[in-house]
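Lecture 7 notes: from sequence to structure.
We start with the chain below.
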Amino acid sequence: MSEEKLPQKVDPFRFADNAIRLQGVLYVNDLERLCDYLHKHSGEIRVDLTFGKNEQGIRFLTGKLSGHLQLQCQRCMEDLAYEITNKIWLAIVHTEEEAAQLPSGYDAIIVDNDILVIQDMIEDELIVSLPVVPMHHPNECKVTLPLVIKSEQELETGKNNPFNVIDFLRVKQETDKK
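Predicted structure tokens for the same chain:
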């Protein structure tokens, strides 16, 4: 099929029986549910999917999703470029009962009425692969968090006073004003 235009809907059972491969691009701003998790709605996701049937007769969908998403770092609240490289390996089934009968190690996609909406499936895969709390690597973030600050007395006694954070914040506030 075409490298750029993906079909909206496919019959994954027929595609698997005929070992069809799809390649193309989805634009991030077209993925409305995914955009709810993003800081900016720009970019594209490269899609490479292969449908097939293995020697056990299990129809499958395998492939790769790749691209860059713009998240918001929850530490500094700045843009965070997040690289997505997602591998997909799904068994294609009609019902939950069929999914329960799959050999261990198979994740299933349940397809109603023999129609799979490609964009929805890809969007689901992208959403579940997002980090729960997106943050820059500590060395790259504009905000540096203090490590545990212990006084000599705390180190000697091994006690940690929960009110020490108040002293730390007071000192930090005074240094920020200067």
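Points to note: DSSP finds six helices and seven strands in the chain. The radius of gyration is 24 Å.
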